[in-house]
Design brief:
By secondary structure, the protein is of the alpha+beta class. It has 10 helices and 16 strands. A hairpin with a 2-residue loop joins strand 2 and strand 3 (about 40). Bound molecules: iron/sulfur cluster (SF4) (2 copies).
Amino acid sequence: MFSFKSSKLFKLNKKSKFKVPTPIINDNLVITNIFYGKTLPPVGEFPRRTEIGEILFQSGTSRILSPVNGIAYFDNTQNSVHLRIDGELSFRPNYERQEFTYLELKTKLDNLGILSLDFSGYLISELMDTFTAGEGSIVVFSPYTQEGHIDFHSMLYTKLKPEVDAFKSTLESIFKKSKVMDFITDKPGPYRYPDGNPRYFISKKCNQPLEKEFPHKNVLYLGPETLYHIIQALYYNIPFHERHLSVSVINKKGVEEGEARVFRVKNGTNLTHFFDTILKKNNYRYFTINSIYNKQPVFEIGAEFLFDFLKHHSIILSESKNPTDVPGMCNDCNDCSYFCPVSADPRALLDKDKSSFQKDRCLECGLCSVYCPVQIDFYELIKTSKKDTQVYAVS
Ligand code: SF4
Ligand code: SF4
C-alpha cells in the first residue's frame, strides 16, 4: 500500500493550469447491495422499469434507491443491479415548504434514503431517536465537511437559506428543550483541517468536552452535506441518489494544486473512462480516495472504478506515488505532538511507556503522520493503542 502523505502541509497553488474534465455519464450504472458493510436484499421483480428514488435494496429502514429512470436487471453473480438509462436524468424538484411533526420528518427522510454523511452507517432518523433532547442538549448545524473539499456551506447559505431556517424552526418545535446552534446562517471562519471532525468541532465551537466517543445522546450533529440532502428531501422531495464528488490533484512534491472541481455524480456511475481521459491528456497516473491526511490506498488508473456514494466523496489524483514510503528513524523533533490539534502527544507512541499518549482525545485525523519529517506512520500505532475502544458507537 502506498501513501500520498507528505512531510509538508498541502498548500493550494492557484496558478495550476490543470483542468479536470467533466465525467461523462455512462448509460449503464451498477448499484451494489452493500450498505456500510450490511448486505441488503433486492426489492421487487427484475428486470423491470424503475424511476429515480425507487427502492432497489432494503433491510428495515436502510435502503438503496435507483439513481436514474431506466431498466433494472439483477445480476445474481455480483448481487448488484444494472441500470440502463432510458429517461430524464434529473429529478424534477417539487417544492413543498411545510412544517413536519417528528414522525412525519423521520418517515420522509427514511423514505427518501437520507442518512448521516458525518457518521457512517446511521440514518438521520436513528440519530434523532438516539438524541435525548434533554436540558442542556444541543442541535448543531456545522459549516464544514470532514475533509473540507466541498463548500456546502456556501450552497446552503446562498441558495437554500429559507429552507435552512424552516428546518431549524421545525427542529426547535420538536426538540423544545434543546438549543439549536446554527453555524450555517452565520459566516464561518476559514476551514482548517480537522475543523470538520464532529468531536473536534463541538469541543472547539460549542463548548462541549472532548469525549472519547461522540455524545450522540446530548448532541445532534448535522454537517453541511447532510443538511444539504435533508433539505433537498424535505422541501423538494429529492431522494438521496447522487453525491457531490470533488476532484483535485497533488503534484510530485505532495502539494495540492489548483482548485478542486466538483461534480454531481449518480450512484453507480462507472468512472473508468473519466480516469482514462485524465491519464491520456494529463499524465496523472494514480489516485486516492477522500483524504490526504489519513492512510489511504493508492490506485493506479486503468482498473474499473465504480462510484459508490456511500464510500466516495473526493478523488485526489497524482502524477507519482510517494517514492519514500519507508519510514526513517525518529529524530525527536516533536513536530507530531506539536501539531496535534488536541494535544494527544502521539510522540509517546514511540516510547516503551506509551501511557502519556491521550488515546481518548485522539481524533485519528492523521496530522501527526503528515507533519513527521521522516514519514513515521502513526496510523497502526494509534489503531493498536485504541483497539479495545469503539469510536462513534451509537447505543
Ligand atoms: S495523535 Fe495524531 S491522529 Fe490523533 S489527534 Fe493528534 S495529530 Fe490527529
Ligand atoms: S515521530 Fe516524526 S515528528 Fe514525531 S518526533 Fe519523531 S521525527 Fe519528529
